[in-house]
Amino acid sequence: METNNINTFGQLKDAGYVYKSIKEELRQNLLQKLMQKEIVFEGIHGYEYTVIPELERAILSKHNINLLGLRGQAKTRLARQMVSLLDEYVPVVEGSEINDDPFQPISRYAKELLVEKDDKTPITWLHRNERFAEKLATPDVTVADIIGDVDPIKAANLKLTYADDRVIHFGMIPRANRCIFVINELPDLQARIQVALFNILQEGDIQIRGFKLRLPMDIQFVFTANPEDYTNRGSIVTPLKDRIGSQILTHYPESLDIARTITAQETTAAQAEKPNVYVPEIAKDILEQISFEARESEFIDSKSGVSARLSITAFENLLSTAERRALLNGDKNTTIRLSDFMGVIPAITGKVELVYEGEQEGVNGVAKQLISDAVKTEFLNYFPKIEKLQKEGDPDPYEALVGWFFEQSGGFELLDTANDNEFEKQLDKVEPLDDLIDTYVGDFNKKDKPFVKEVILWALVEFKKLSKYNLSDGLRFKDVYGGYISGL
Fold first, then answer.
1. 318, 350, 348: which is closest to 335 by C-alpha?
2. What H or E segment, with its residue span, contains residue 360?
3. What pLDDT, in 10s, does the model give residues 409-431?
4. What is the pLDDT at residue 25?
5. For residue 165, what are the CA distances in angstroms to 101, 172, 217?
6. 33/417 Cα distance (integer angstroms)
7. What is the Cα–Cα distance from 238 to 235, expressed in whole angstroms?
8. How many CB atoms lie within 10 A of CB 391?
9. Which of 57, 40, 43 is nearest to 308 (CA)?
10. What span, in angstroms and rounded, lies between the C-alpha atoms of 140 and 303?
11. β partners of residue 278
């Protein structure tokens, strides 16, 4: 509807405007998008056949919704994107605190104004981007905050008694009338505050103090909750859960490709700022694999979850680690090295909750182990499995490589202070690495080759075929027995 020339209630009626509830708006606009086969929720990956169909069914059913899942599963993003399903503009009685529709006024102010001015009642237009309200549930939230209370200052200024409903100061929910209202981390809301939501969800109205006032709210509620909260901090009271139409379970990416797509989308700005840093494809896979390893780790509390933000912040740290190294070495351009992954440890340590065994290992030790496990997993996607006991007569694809290190009495060093050319030349000295890559790795970008060589060395260390020592400015690799003898 053209809104520029419609400024009064009479003009609105002449234009043929028809009132719709917010749930009806969402339903009709979703139906239209589905018929036109448009993407409803942009930038949400991995939910195409699970969460999004359930969310669409809930909207079509006009339900209030609870998105239940661990942290970093795009619950809030889904709720915010529901705004795109609202009409672009809706009419509001001018001056109304609670977005009164002129056809369905609910506040005393709007009703009296319509009686006084009738068709000349001024209206304004509310854009859909302004029809979203969000509240993080915390234990200190009060009924007055979210529903309302008597305002003594207003009573004094207007010279009204407390028996007059005009002394009410409306809370967040009434002010979100005709909007999408999101309450994040619902279990953190005190039980008595959750009880205050019963009537709003069931009857669609609010009650404040002892007033006879009943305001039928037109709100689409979306709640988010973490299952961990049910045991650690609080719970959703059963009668409130019963009044929420649909509870939808979210989940983490189920494949490495989906995880990579999400990380690439969320780190576009970071990559644009560092165009001089090249990231090999296998490095991206190892980075995502860290999160997958963390979700399976015995040292990490699985109930707490491992947020998708781990991969995003780790990728940003990885780029910055390479950028800093290149600057110090005088390189204009550089390629990610496996040793750069030590720079992502601070991004891991703040994203995982350790169990008792993990606390004993130490958070840094757990982070390093996750990186090592990711390297091992990715290595086995390309190269033969390394058996602990080799059957006699069976060929050992790593025999030549291990033998090469056995001949290097002083060990083999990879220094962070080496520029890219020096680093590649150092790796090229290990000729058996080229043979392994040519034999087992298919067609891949030749720029990735130095990184793949590093992966082989690190993996052989993890499988006890080589030993690795930290230097102040790099790493030294030796054969296992040579390292043991020199230690003696």
1. 318
2. helix 356-361
3. 778 999 999 999 999 999 999 99
4. 96
5. 20, 17, 17
6. 55
7. 9
8. 7
9. 43
10. 25
11. 335
Q: How confident is the model at residue 2 (pLDDT cuts 50, 70, 90)?
A: low
Residue 162 to residue 153: CA distance in whole angstroms: 11
Rounded mean pLDDT, 225-233: 66
Q: Which residues pair with 67 in a beta bridge?
A: 224, 248
Domains of the chain with CATH codes: 9-249 (3.40.50.300), 256-379 (1.10.8.80), 399-487 (no CATH)
CB count within 10 Å of CB 164 equals 15
CA-to-CA dists, residue 474 to 79, 290, 302, 337, 477, angstroms:
46, 22, 34, 11, 10
- What number is the average pLDDT over the span 91-114? 91
Contact status, residue 215 vs residue 173, Cβ threshold 8 Å: no
Give the three-state DSSP class for 169: strand
Q: Give CA–CA dist 282/264, Å, rounded.
A: 14
pLDDT bracket for residue 130 (50, 70, 90): very high
Lowest mean pLDDT: which of 34-38, 185-189, 195-199, 398-402? 195-199
Strands 65-68, 246-249: pairing is parallel
Contact 294, 78 (CB under 8 A): no
Range 399-407 average pLDDT: 90
Three-state SS annotation for 175-234: HCCCCEEEEECHHHCCHHHHHCCHHHHHCCEECCCCCCCCEECCCEEEEEECCCHHHHCC
Give 138-196 pLDDT, tens digit per residue: 888 888 888 887 777 777 777 776 566 677 788 898 899 999 999 998 988 888 888 88
> Containing H/E element for 440?
helix 431-440
On the CB side of 59, CA atoms within 13 Å amount to 28
Answer whether 266's CB lies under 8 Å from 312's CB: yes
Written as one letter, the residue type at 213 is L
Give dist(CA 461, CA 456) in Å, integer. Answer: 9
What is the pLDDT at residue 134?
Answer: 93
